[in-house]
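Appendix B, record 7
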Amino acid sequence: MMQFELRSYRNLEYREADEKTPKYFFEIDLSKLLPGTGRVARLPVYWRPNRARHPILKELYWTDVGGERVEKGNLVALEKALPEAIVPLIVNGTLPYYFFKTPAGSFPAYLSHGKLHLRFNGASFSGDDVGQLWHRLGEYLQGLGKVEEKEEIEVSIFLWNELQIYPTAFVLRNGKAWMPVFIHREGGAITLNYDLIGAPSRFLEPEQAFDLRREVAMALAESRAIASPGALKIDQVREEIWARMEVWVKPAGFVLVYHQDGQRGEIPVYEAKGEFLALQHSSRARLIFSSDPDELSQLVSQDLVQRGRMASTSILAVEKRG
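Structure tokens (predicted):
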């Protein structure tokens, strides 16, 4: 197993018996494994007591590498175990860019020669971006009967300088346009990571999600990748992210109403940053945007019909709040 330089140092903010704050940090020089200089990753190391009865092993030290916990009885043993966790992740001189979590397991995707590549149980997939790769893998798994919907496939980003993976906070999507925005954690703070291949990551506050959606939607509409800015949705919003976004919205003066199977239903509408947004909730929040109530009704109707949730686009109507 190839070795690398590693040094450990104590976290000066650590207090004894604190299991949530790193007790140490590892700095790992990956220059022997990856091309380029300045390839130093920083890993937090946590401590906890061994709650299992053991005559010798009274405490445990652990860290996370690519979503997998590495845990040993002392700091030296943990240092020695790290190469076994890190080196197998390296393929053709690079670490994973993403991880695709499926019901059949988690699979890394690598960036090589400007394309993303993923191997799944002997099958190979490639894509110009993460959305294209997600669609291709999803269609393949649907064909095998492994998933009913592509949304069962979750994507996390792998940051080499932390050796950590971070899940999707929400997805900007419309048809073939599928762009995940990732959660990033530093200390107790949660931010968003908007990452495009070939461009520096942009770290944003959750409430900036509305501005980001509008920016991306305008760019896609100008390039005619989508019909209008309102066509770009925010989908699959994690609960902890929606809780931060929700603070910045207020109820609009109308709701979207439908009658189906003799039942009346309402879809709530809010205002945020000068736009209306319709909120749908299934397992996660789904937001559809427009600056015009009638266009919003049409967009929501089309979305519901496409997903088999409504029989006709004519069912939905705008109704003022009393």
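Remarks on this record: Residues 249-322 form one domain. The mean pLDDT is 91.
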